[in-house]
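Retro notes (design track)

What went well: tokenization of the new backbones is finally stable.
What didn't: we kept losing track of which sequence belonged to which structure.
Fix going forward: every design gets posted as structure first, then sequence, in one message. First example under the new rule, 309 residues:
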């Protein structure tokens, strides 16, 4: 019987692991398919306190893992939780195909990339359509070619700036005429002469499904209704996140968008189940806020287990 199973290995998961390990709870952390979570796909993280020169996202997650394991966290690397039974205690968590019982569970499953929802996007995925510039930007197929980034938030700005290293030009296609991104990121993008914003515009279709590779995009100006086509070799979709909470639907309270709603602190509606990070946060979604929520979930779990003892 586990004291606490932590599901997820982003900033929230590792911080929860660090705190529960130091509380002698001997936590078991299940990393999921993508150990380290979304932060491992970014480059330099400049806004995590304590790193005046910034820190590589992947390295930051490795550091968090090492720190959590140093105090006794047990890691189920690249394992996934396929189902949970939270209807009675002990909770039952199926990890890969093994059912493990637990006195408490911390949900830190994070969020995944939102898709445009186009048929052509689906068909050309990995054939020029991607959701991660740091993972794919340096591929030969994108070098010295025009590239499109879709979105107007921090992610889109970060992707566009990163891609200027490889692309001949980066078109930033945004559905409004102002960026949602933080001012510092927006200013960098707008000052970069390799990035050409295309305002008030949506991607209607990614070309060319017949050739089975990205050759361009068909765009629609939302004000004039006019359609146009631009040539490009890659489409980087950066239009936000969707919480990874499908496993808990119908059991753990969540809003219409699927974000888990804590009742107080990191508690959920099910006593003994706690939540932390992007899967419960649609407002802040920062590495540091996820880490802080992981700490809260660990402390709440520790107190819960103490009270139950
Ligand atoms: P976001 O802030 O939610 O921005 C999503 C962008 O995509 C918005 O501009 C939105 O348009 C657009 N969009 C959404 N759905 C769309 C659709 N179907 N078609 C076209 N455009 C669509 O998401 P994010 O940029 O991924 O950032 C998520 C969080 O992570 C934010 O809190 C952000 O600050 C944080 N983050 C921070 C950093 C950093 O600090 N360096 C880096 C990356 C992310 P509208 O503007 O019209 O809504």
């Amino acid at each position: 019987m586990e004291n606490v199973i932590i599901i997820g290995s982003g900033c929230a998961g590792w911080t929860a692991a660090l705190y529960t390990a130091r509380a002698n709870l001997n936590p078991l952390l299940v990393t999921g398919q993508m150990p380290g979570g979304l932060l491992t796909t970014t480059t330099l993280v400049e806004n995590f306190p304590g790193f005046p020169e910034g820190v590589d996202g992947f390295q930051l997650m490795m550091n968090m893992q090492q720190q959590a394991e140093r105090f006794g966290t047990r890691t189920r690397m690249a394992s996934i939780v396929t189902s949970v039974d939270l209807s009675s205690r002990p909770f039952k968590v199926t990890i890969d195909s093994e059912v493990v019982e637990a006195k408490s569970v911390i949900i830190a499953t994070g969020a995944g990339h939102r898709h445009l929802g186009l048929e052509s996007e689906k068909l050309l995925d990995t054939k020029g359509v991607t959701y991660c510039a740091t993972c794919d930007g340096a591929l030969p197929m994108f070098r010295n070619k025009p590239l499109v980034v879709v979105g107007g938030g921090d992610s889109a700005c970060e992707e566009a700036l990163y891609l200027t290293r490889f692309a001949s030009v980066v078109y930033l296609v945004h559905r409004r005429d102002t960026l949602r991104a933080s001012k510092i990121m927006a200013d960098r993008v707008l000052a970069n002469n390799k990035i050409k914003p295309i305002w008030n515009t949506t991607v209607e279709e990614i070309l060319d499904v017949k050739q089975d590779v990205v050759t361009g995009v068909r765009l629609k100006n939302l004000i004039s209704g006019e359609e146009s086509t631009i040539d490009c070799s890659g489409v980087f979709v950066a239009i936000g996140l969707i919480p990874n909470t499908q496993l808990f639907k119908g059991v753990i309270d969540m809003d219409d968008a699927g974000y888990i709603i804590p009742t107080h602190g990191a508690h959920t509606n099910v006593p003994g189940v706690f939540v932390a990070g992007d899967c419960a946060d649609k407002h802040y979604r920062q590495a540091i806020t996820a880490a802080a929520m992981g700490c809260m979930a660990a402390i709440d779990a520790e107190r819960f287990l103490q009270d139950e003892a």
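Added context from the reviewer: The chain has a mean pLDDT of 96.
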